[in-house]
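User: Sorry, what's this?
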Amino acid sequence: MRYAKRGRMRFASHRDIARALERAIRKAGVPVAYSAGFTPHPKLSYTGAAPTGVASEAEYFEMVLAESVPPARVSAGLDAALPDGLDVVEAVQAGPGGLADRLQASQWRVELPGVAPDDAESAVAAFLAADSVEVERLTKKGRRRFDVRAAVVRLESDARAAREHNATYAILRMVVRHTAPAVRPDDVVTGLRHAAGLAPPSSPMMTRLAQGPLDEGTGGIADPFATDRRGATPGPAEGERPVPPPSGIAGPT
């Protein structure tokens, strides 16, 4: 399933969003499968979650159902049950292969109020010309220093930003490869400060536009659901009783 994190919900933590999704699943009556054991929990798998404070149009999770339900019905039910700012974009029946393996890179838009587009363009050029740009960030394993330049596949300053906002305003567009440790868009902004002295006067506004398989040749990102759509089988008609597979468990949605 693909969902968006918009507006004030960008400040919700991943744990809060997971709780909201689980409540919506119960409210919508989605027949999610549960694990065995003393404390069963719904079979949900999250991957590639955006950091707290970052908006996203491309968040993903997988869900195992206890019976077959058309993806469109699951999508509509969840979307109606979720709070404002969490919106289901699309649901598909999972095909072969893991979703996490397909999420190789993300496309980001980073808005920099108070930064002149010419300054942003010069900083981008300096960053791309560097062999490496190291930044330091506190991670779960402590403070780490790592190179952000190697993870940046594409980076450009959007020349339309100043015209659209009629102010000193820069917009960066970037494609960042998923690495360990993860390189976030704010790490790239920090790298621009190290490489070229670019220091935004206010916090950047960051939005993930897409994530999926990376085309190394063009730097573009493909649709991670393409494989699932090719292998999709027609679901039961509206109002028709679904027939579960022999195992009684449908594939992830």
Q: What stands out?
A: The two ends are 6 Å apart (CA to CA).
